[in-house]
Amino acid sequence: MRVGIVGVGTIGQALAKAIDRGEVAVQLTALHSRNLAQAQAFARTLGRVPEVVDLAGVLTRCDLVIEAATQAALAWLLHQGEDVVPIPGTTSLEHLEENLGACDIHFTEEDFNGIAEILKKFPVAGTRYNPSMARMVNLD
User: Fold this and answer.
1) So what's the pLDDT on residue 101?
2) Is residue 130 part of a domain?
3) Residues 123, 13: Cα–Cα separation, whole Å
4) Residue 129: inside a domain, yes or no?
5) Buried/exposed 33-46: b ≥16 CB within 10 Å, e otherwise
C-alpha cells in the first residue's frame, strides 16, 4: 500500500520513521507540508526518500493519506466559528509551541473550499461512544 503523510511535525516524522524502519508494512510514497523546504530536508534523512509534493500530488499518488499536520488541523478548527474551541493535549513545551503555531496559519477561500471537497468524501457515521461508554458519560 502506498502511503502519504500530510504534515511533517512531530507526529508526521514519527510515522514516517516507523514506516522507514519497516515497523509498518506499507510504502511511504509522498510527503506534504506547508513548509516544503522542511519536508524535503526531513525526507532526505530517511532510508527510502519519498517524494515531497503538493496536497493534490499526495492524493493522486497514494492509496492512504495520513493527516498528521497538527497545526493545520487546529487552524482549521479555529476558523470554524467562535462556538468551536479546540482543546489539544500535549505533554511537552515543544508540542505546545508547535500547537500555538496554528494561530499563524491563515487559510484562503480556496483552501477552505478544497478542504470542504475532501471532507465530503468522508461522511460522519455512527456514534461517538459505544453503549457502555455512553452510560459512563451520561449519554445513554
Assistant:
1) 82
2) no
3) 28
4) no
5) bbeeeebeebbeeb
Radius of gyration (Cα) for the chain, nearest Å? 17
Identify the domain containing residue 99 by its residue range.
Answer: 2-120
Q: Is the pTM of this model over 0.85?
A: no
- CATH number, residue 71: 3.40.50
What is the enclosing helix (H) or strand (E) of 64?
Answer: strand 64-67
Q: Minimal CA–CA distance to 64: which of 119, 116, 5, 24?
A: 5
Mean pLDDT by 10 residues, the chain (140 residues): 86 88 89 89 95 90 82 83 84 83 83 77 77 75
Residue of 11, 22, 16, 21 whose CA lies nearest to 50: 16
Residues 26, 85 contacting (CB under 8 angstroms): no
Residue 16 lies in a domain: yes
